[in-house]
């Protein structure tokens, strides 16, 4: 009987977000769909998608990161055009409205430059998402650490490791859901990391078109 080596997992999945892996297990990401990784970095969350026949796109503000993702795609999925991967600020994506079945945005939103920038990114991710499509976002929040963080101004907080991050709270997330008409596919899931930050997973669906 042939067994795959456990070491092959890293080659298949790279450093995929474990909560995104959960969406794969639930069948919400399928071969042939159009998927955007917004803030893709060097492609850690889309390595498996490329190999699985997903029509992957990526956007990142770093030209160096996009070059690495294009190199990864050329190796794992040579039929994916290099133009699928673009340098862009996430609040101004160069993609058509209603283009993607799934939009990912993992470990990015807490780097927003202002509350308006944060909302602008979310609205832009929503714009390019097809009716009936899924938005998966994971970002640092104040949930579970209310009153325990060093507030700088507004929703900006100094993190224990030094940088200042924009941290949404449950109220802001609920406000966005209402304004977008989003339907939660999962309850909010928040993980406490070493008592100094939390990471919240937000998975929502865009209402299907009525026409």
TrEMBL record:
GO terms for molecular function: polyprenyldihydroxybenzoate methyltransferase activity. It comes from the Bacteria. Coiled coil: none annotated. CDD domains: AdoMet_MTases. Residues 36-136 form the Methyltransferase type domain. The keyword Methyltransferase applies. SUPFAM superfamilies: S-adenosyl-L-methionine-dependent methyltransferases (SSF53335). InterPro entries: Methyltransf_11, SAM-dependent_MTases_sf. Keywords: Methyltransferase, Transferase. GO terms for biological process: methylation. Signal peptide: none annotated. PANTHER family: JUVENILE HORMONE ACID O-METHYLTRANSFERASE (PTHR43464:SF23), METHYLTRANSFERASE (PTHR43464). This is Methyltransferase domain-containing protein. It comes from Pontibacter lucknowensis.
């Amino acid at each position: 009987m042939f067994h795959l080596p456990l070491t092959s997992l890293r080659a298949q999945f790279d450093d995929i977000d474990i909560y995104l892996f959960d969406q794969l297990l639930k069948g919400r990401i399928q071969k042939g769909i159009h998927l955007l990784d917004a803030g893709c970095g060097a492609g850690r969350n889309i390595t498996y998608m490329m190999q699985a026949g997903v029509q992957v796109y990526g956007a990142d503000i770093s030209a160096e990161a996009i070059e690495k993702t294009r190199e990864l795609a050329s190796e794992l999925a040579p039929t994916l055009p290099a133009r699928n991967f673009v340098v862009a600020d996430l609040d101004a994506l160069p993609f058509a409205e209603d283009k993607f079945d799934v939009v990912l945005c993992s470990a990015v939103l807490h780097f927003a430059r202002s509350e308006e920038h944060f909302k602008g990114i979310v609205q832009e991710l929503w714009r390019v998402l097809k009716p009936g499509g899924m938005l998966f976002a994971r970002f640092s929040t104040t949930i579970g650490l209310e009153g325990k963080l060093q507030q700088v101004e507004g929703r900006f907080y100094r993190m224990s490791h030094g940088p200042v991050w924009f941290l949404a709270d449950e109220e802001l997330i609920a406000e966005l859901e209402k304004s977008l008409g989003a339907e939660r596919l999962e309850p909010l899931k928040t993980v406490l990391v070493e008592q100094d930050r939390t990471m919240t997973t937000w998975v929502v669906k865009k209402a299907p078109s009525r026409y």
